[in-house]
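Predict structure. Chain length: 240.
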Amino acid sequence: MAFQRPPQTERSGTGNAPRRGRLRLLWPAAAVGLGLVLIHQSLGTAPVTSPRQAGRPTAAAPRATGTARPVQPAPSTSAEADDGALPRSAPERISIPEISVDAPFTKLSLDTTGHLSPPPADDTNLVGWFQDGASPGERGASIVAGHVDTTTGPAVFAGLESLSTGDSVDITREDGIVAHFEVDAVDTFSKAKFPDDEVYADTPTPELRLITCGGNFNRTSQDYESNVVVFAHLDSSSPS
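Prediction complete.
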């Protein structure tokens, strides 16, 4: 797989849902300074027959130098008292009824070069969670990545960009709690102008980022040219 570090430029996205006005704080300075990278040909491999033009994305992923360190949730404040934040617990399964997604999780980590390893490409119904970031339901932005397709056909996040504001994403956690998220926006970003701080910035309340490949398929590079990113916030939680 090939990796590219997106330049720190203005966002180049087209959203099919209004952007939320919620404050997005930057990660701690040490984490921000490490930068972020995009995963190419890992969340959307070349189709078996012909390149696909409809957008679904490769995931952007945190990069670090040296040992990866988890992003610590922001300290609680009175404004966060009623945000429904949950204690840390790894996710086990994701359900998105609107696009018929029902899939298990695998944990994703940084490799020896400091890049996020993608989910296995031979499993079309599997999503990955960046385990050194916030867990779903915890304060902060939880990062979940999935393939749009593989050499065998469509994969788990093939329909991700069709989600709309108000759609539901349910994540069952190891502690038996289901975190219910509500979609706020769906954007397609050019990989060349990927807005790292907007997608990966730490948040004072529990949020979720779903990422996959999208945009045009480049025959020369055998890769998608964009990323699809779903922004969502924790709406409620319940026992599984």
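Summary: The first strand starts at residue 2 and ends at 4.
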